[in-house]
TrEMBL record:
Gene3D superfamilies: P-loop containing nucleotide triphosphate hydrolases. One of its GO terms (molecular function) is ATP binding. Residues 9-246 form the ABC transporter domain. PANTHER family: PROTEIN TRIGALACTOSYLDIACYLGLYCEROL 3, CHLOROPLASTIC. Pfam families: ABC_tran (PF00005). This is ABC transporter. Keywords: ATP-binding, Nucleotide-binding, Transport. Signal peptide: none annotated. It comes from Acetobacter cibinongensis. InterPro entries: AAA+_ATPase (IPR003593), ABC_transporter-like_ATP-bd (IPR003439), ABC_transporter-like_CS (IPR017871), P-loop_NTPase (IPR027417).
């Protein structure tokens, strides 16, 4: 049987500039229901801006973004907020609230949307912390008291707290040692599977991209220049992707930089 549902996320000809700087230059992308999609690309290539556009944190200049067939850019503020609450995000730098204990960080979105009673929040946070391999007692600590790996786990706990349909991961392994990176990737894969979510992860870590991704694409100069299965990232046959994934100094990307 063919799947007749619209893609979970459908992006058409998305453009975004900051002043004279063109960051997204016509992004077109379908992310099917239940797929883990990895977007790779160099620093400053617009990966975070793309995720922030889908999240509604940045308004694109033109183009469309649909979630479940509904254009979020033309939806009412209330509807947009509802769609956004279906997305869990693990931010690049964790973005935890330093002044709040871990339990309140984890349940922040649920409390703000009144989907959880404050008196139940500590217990609920403990359950979610356990899902990312942390002892419920970590809930009483403050972000500054956590190691980098623990902060990522707490960020992941916050992202999955509302059992979202869609999960975004912004460079989930950046700043972690390779072993902790693998642990976090494993947790991400487990969480996505358990929730049955559709996921987009952006990264420049090739090991991570292959662990997390089903599908992959490469962002370069504001465009998606390649798309294929994550398993072919290291042998895509595309000279730019090859240079990037193998970290070669010489190649079409380097030649661009020297111009
Ligand atoms: N709010 C903003 N205002 C101005 N420029 C921005 C803003 N956000 C991102 N940029 C610029 O857009 C480009 C892409 O940024 P980003 O998406 O964060 O890159 P990355 O691929 O490393 O995640 C960068 O040159 C960055 O400086
Ligand atoms: Mg980024």
């Amino acid at each position: 049987m063919t799947d007749t549902r619209p893609p979970k996320i459908r992006i058409r000809d998305l453009h975004k500039s900051f002043g004279a700087k063109k960051v997204l230059d016509g992004i077109t992308l379908d992310v099917p229901q239940g797929t883990s999609f990895v977007i790779i690309g160099g620093s400053g290539s617009g990966k975070s801006v793309l995720l922030r556009c889908i999240l509604g944190l940045i308004v694109p200049d033109s183009g469309s973004i649909e979630i479940d067939g509904e254009n979020i850019l033309t939806a009412s503020t209330k509807r947009r907020e509802a769609l956004r609450s279906e997305i869990g995000m693990l931010f690049q730098n964790g973005a935890l609230f330093d002044s709040l204990p871990v339990w309140e960080n984890v349940t922040f979105g649920l409390l703000a949307r009144k989907r959880l009673k404050r008196s139940d929040a500590r217990t609920h946070a403990g359950t979610i912390l356990a899902q990312v391999g942390l002892d419920p007692s970590v809930g009483e600590l403050y972000p500054s008291e956590l190691s980098g790996g623990m902060q990522k786990r707490v960020g992941l706990a916050r992202a999955i707290a509302a059992t979202p349909d869609i999960l975004f991961f912004d460079e989930p392994t950046t700043g972690l040692d390779p072993i902790m990176g693998a642990v976090i990737d494993g947790l991400i894969v487990d969480c996505v599977k358990k929730l049955g979510s559709t996921a987009i992860a952006i990264t420049h870590d090739m090991a991570s991209a292959q662990r997390i991704g089903d599908e992959a694409a490469m962002l370069y100069k504001g465009r998606l220049i390649w798309q294929g299965p994550a398993t072919s990232l290291m042998n895509s046959g595309n000279p730019m992707v090859d240079q990037f994934t193998h970290g070669r100094r010489e190649g079409p990307i380097g030649m661009e930089l020297r111009k």
